[in-house]
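Please study the protein below:
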Amino acid sequence: MKDLLIKFLKPYGKQIILAIVFLLLQVMSNLYLPSLNADIINNGVAKGDINYILKTGSFMLLVTLLLVTCAIASSYFSSKIAMSFGRDMRRAIFYKVESFSQADLDKFGTPSLITRNTNDVHQIQMLVLLGLNLMVMAPLMCLGGIIMALSQDVVLSSSIIIIAPLMGVVVWLLLIKATPLFRSIQIKIDRVNQIMREKLMGVRVIRAFVRSDYEARRFDEANRDLTSTTLRVNRIMALAIPGLIIIMNISTVAIIWFGGHRIESGAMPIGNLTAFLTYIMEIMISVILAMGMFIMVPRAEASAERVLEVLNTEPSIKDPDKPVVSGKREGNIEFCEVEFSYPQAEEAVLKNISFRAAPGETTAIIGSTGCGKSTLVTLIPRFYDVSSGSIRIDGIDIRNIFLPDLRDRIGLVPQKAFLFSGTIADNLRYGNENATDEELWQALEIAQAKDFVMELPDKLYAPVEQGGVNFSGGQRQRLAIARALVKKPEIYLFDDSFSALDYKTDAQLRLALKGKTIHSTVIIVAQRVSTIRNANQIVTLSDDGTIAGIGTHSQLMETCPVYSDIVHSQLSEEELVYERK
């Protein structure tokens, strides 16, 4: 945790010094006031000197004003530092996660990353905020209180030798019990977050299968587990305050009793006893403040470990040390004996994949469910890296191309069409922020989305809710296709992007695409034979992730049993006879 604090607090060194200076002045003012009060009792009240009381009292008011001013200033700077610290850490985590490959994201999981960038950062941020106040104030108050107590009465100050260690033992015993529980709380928050996210994202499936009661029980178990652990921690820490207050009250009674005897013997003025009691109280309060700090440390430390785990993770997919810049940008893609395995998988998903996709041609990928079609497409923009073999674009291994440059050449339409909150125009300009309205309408027309966008009250500037939930599946797919078209890339990747479209819209869209992508390389992953039967080449994958055949529709019908079986499963005998004619 120390390294994390140093890294993110270093830019605020001057502000930290100012906060500590004001806090130091605040503590000094606070420690000086009981001494002035003792002087008024000993010299003013005892002797009936009104002028002395007014003079010293006025000075006390000035010291109090200084104390209030310093308290406000120290709170301002500590709050500003803590909030800036949290902002910088959240930004660092966000940028780090942006650099992660899909494998890195899978390793942490979405719920955990969300919790780390919100709850965990908040815990560390609160530690910084309290640390700049309590961590500095507590030792200063304790040390200053001891010194000032000694200045009032050395003999009575011997009570500190018993009081301070006794309070320290109470705090230490409680922390031993609570620290392991603080670490488990963060993990259990992850679990609650995960179940809640699944509930919200899968609400339709849950309702369709009438599993609301089951999900409610699952959430209730995780919620009760978190609640139980949190209550255990709170019960343990709740013992601290009563324990410390008992010690404080017994100490106060003992000091008054012994102090009364010393006043009676004339060894100590009554004003000094008043001041001494105040200093003892401040020493005890400083211990309580330190305890509050110690309560925060274990939980913040657990959160810091989780944040550092993200920040210290080296992305598995990185830019090459010496990127190769291609002189030509045509979009030729070549798979050379590619093999790919997911992390921790027992066997490869794709094996010995070799084919070429040329500009001006459409290459289709088809096969049974789970054979690796979508995986093959995700390898091209390097969401995952190949386990062996290579993928080349214009003759250059994609691992030797600068990542932004590589992905800038690709227009991807993912299997699950995702839209961002904002407007339709904002989403379409995601790939080209300088696109004109005319270009947006042109892309919508090609994607067969112009008609329904024209019917919206705000047209291009109609609102899009998070995830595009205010549009149907087919509308989202067409908007996602239009977004890729606005980018005008050299390579188009359509990952089963026509599945939500009816046959008529599918045919119209593919016909319109042909004119738009005449100079681009197009790779289409599809389940429907009708979508890819006119492709220049069709790559058919077998169930074990190998290539069963490559060729045109008519060639594969004669030479590839896997492709022939897929066609026969989708087309009727009448359609097959008509096709042969």
In short: The chain is about 65% helix and 10% strand. The first helix runs from residue 2 to 9.
